[in-house]
Design brief:
By secondary structure, the protein is of the alpha/beta class. Helix content is 38%, strand content 20%.
Amino acid sequence: MRILVVEDDAGIASGLRTNLLQRGYAVDVCDGVAGAWAALRAERFDAVLLDLGLADGDGSDLLRRLRLSPAPGASSTPVLPDPATPVLIVTARDQIYQRIAGLDQGADDYLVKPFDVDELDARLRALLRRAAGRASPTVRYGDIELDPAARTIRQSGKPVDVSPRAFSVLQVLLDAKGRVLSRQQIEERLYGWDAAIESNAVEVHIHHLRRKLGSDCIQTMRGVGYFMPQEAP
C-alpha cells in the first residue's frame, strides 16, 4: 500500500516515513501543497496523511481541490488525481470546530498531534479497508486468509511464511481481484520514489506466492499482467 505523507516538519515527516515503512507501507513525502498536488497528479496513492499548516498554504485547500477533481476518465486531461483517495488529516489543530470543518471538507478521518503511531496505523487500515469495500478486518479468498494488521497469511488455517514484499504483492492483487494489473501498476503500489526496483522483482514475488499458495492462485494474462480471479479456483 502506497501512502503520501504531506508534512512540512522534517522531523515528523521522517519519523512517519520510518514507522510506516516498518509496517510494510511504501511511503512518499511532500512538504507543501504544490508538491503534494503534483504528486497526486502523477501517481496513484492508496491514502494521504495530510497536515494542515503547511509552509506554502493550508492543507484544507489541497483537500478541497482533490475532492473537486473530476473522476478518472471524466476529462480529456491525461493525468488526474483520484478524488476518492482516502485522506487522514494529521494536525495540531485540536478544536472541535476544526475537526468538524476538516471532516466536512472531505477528510475521511482526523487525528490530532501528538499521536500514537499504532493508532495511526489502525486508522490507516480502517481507511484502506473501507476504500476496498470490505467490512471485515481480514481478507478471505477461498482457503486463504490475509490479515493486514498482523501482516500474516494463513491457508486452510495454517500459517504461510512469505517475505514482507510478497505479502504486499498478494494484498495488492487481492484488493484488485478480478482485474488484471500490469507489472508497472503493481510496482507503483509497492515502491516509493526513492526505492530501487529490480527488473524482475514482481515476477519473483509472484513465483514464490504460487509455490506457497498453489499455482492457480495468481494467474497471468500474457503480455498484460497478473490477476486473481473474482472467485477462488
